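Form 7-S
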Amino acid sequence: MRRLWRIVLVSAAVLAAVAATGLGMAYSLGAFAEAGRFGAVPGCAVLDPATFAPVLAAAKVETDGDNCTASDGQVQVNVGYTLVTKRGTVGGPELASRYLTAVAGGDTERLDGVGDQAIRQRTQAIGSPQVISMRVSNLIVVLSVLNLGGGDLPAGAEDGLVKVATAVGTRLKA
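Output:
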């Protein structure tokens, strides 16, 4: 009877060792890394002229590949997408988060409630462009607003861009 128990215990130990080795190999190959919600860039289908209403009263939306542009002739809002895929043991959402953390510098501010993570960058360039970079799962969305005439942005354009980003983030999460 003791011999039977020894065989059972040794067999269980060998089986546990094989299982642990298999799980370790699967982990090292990235089998447990989260791919993220997006397998492809959503494109401009999630955007319509009403999305841009907080910045542009009468927006004309144009598509150029996966990038979208809305303009009223004086002010332009751009939306671009970057899909982040998992690499090894690091998932797509984690890599996208690391990217936004790395991009955030001294001239950025964190925006709470916009996508899963978002930052705003204020620049001092011609047209006073303002940029919001946000993450929704493994998708990075970059939104910018600028004055095509080269002057300052109209009143409310910066806050309007935050509202546009919030709307886009909400649609992408749905």
